[in-house]
What does this fold into?
Amino acid sequence: MNSLLSRIITSPANEEIKAIRALERRKERRETGLFIAEGLRHVLEGIDCGWELHRLVFHTKLAGKNEIQTAQRVCVAGGGQCFEVNDTVLEKLSHKDNPQQVIGVFKQKTLSLDFFPFSRHTNPEQKKIVSCIVALEQVRDPGNLGTILRTVDGVGADAVILIDQCCDPFSVEAVRASMGSLFAVPIAVATRDEFLVYAKAWQGAVVGTHLSDRTVDYREAVYTKPVLLVMGNEQAGLSPELSAALPILVKLPMKGRADSLNLAIATGVMLYRILEA
Ligand code: SAM
It folds into this structure.
């Protein structure tokens, strides 16, 4: 059955392999609308969450294994192609620090803010009541973005909005840092102006995080659900435009010499405060 569902490729110079490798570049991802997920667990996660698997690449020694066969069937049924490859090809596709036996190429999925909920009513993507959405203004570090997606998923928040020039959630680094949560968390992209209109219509607390001393201690703020939590850029923090427009600004106390927390850590602390306190 394998030979019917997959093609054997032994050369790293094969055009299909080169096309997958090229997805490490943002330009290529933007043009094709595709991205790479590394590892069997993440590929199965993507399938489970209903994402479209366009290419499946796996080491020939895994051929015939149940989970691989399941992934092959899904890939082929959706019009995709499967490739059985050797070590040399996988080395070309995988990062040296993170060699993988399975690689999936999925179709990207982001939503427009028009399809995002702004009240406690049912989230169209996940069919549940909305508790908290996290908005990130100009997040630049893909490791931070992936970690935040993982945290949003873990704490049971609903979605992420990327405001303005953010790093690519579909970069290899972000996908890897998300540990599969990228597939479970709806993502919207918006300009700052679009976000401001959305935030104005939000029917719950809109909370920004800021380092100014004029802000409220995060333990004292009232988090009326659903909460729209807004986090700033790693270097510059929240822009003056957003800071001025958000009705509540909170600060996590800084007690030592550090003047701020890492963005992903600050987001995690805020989310557990909002959803678990
Ligand atoms: N130099 C920047 C500034 O002055 O805002 C530091 C930005 S900080 C590394 C990145 C983001 O993490 C901030 O915009 C904020 O959203 C959040 N953050 C980090 N530490 C925080 C704290 N102690 N209180 C509130 N938010 C914090």
Q: What stands out?
A: Residues 209-211, 231-232, 234, 237-238, 251-252, 254, 260-261, 263, 266 surround S-adenosylmethionine (CB under 6 Å). The chain has a mean pLDDT of 93. Residues 113-276 form a domain with the Alpha/beta knot fold (CATH 3.40.1280.10).
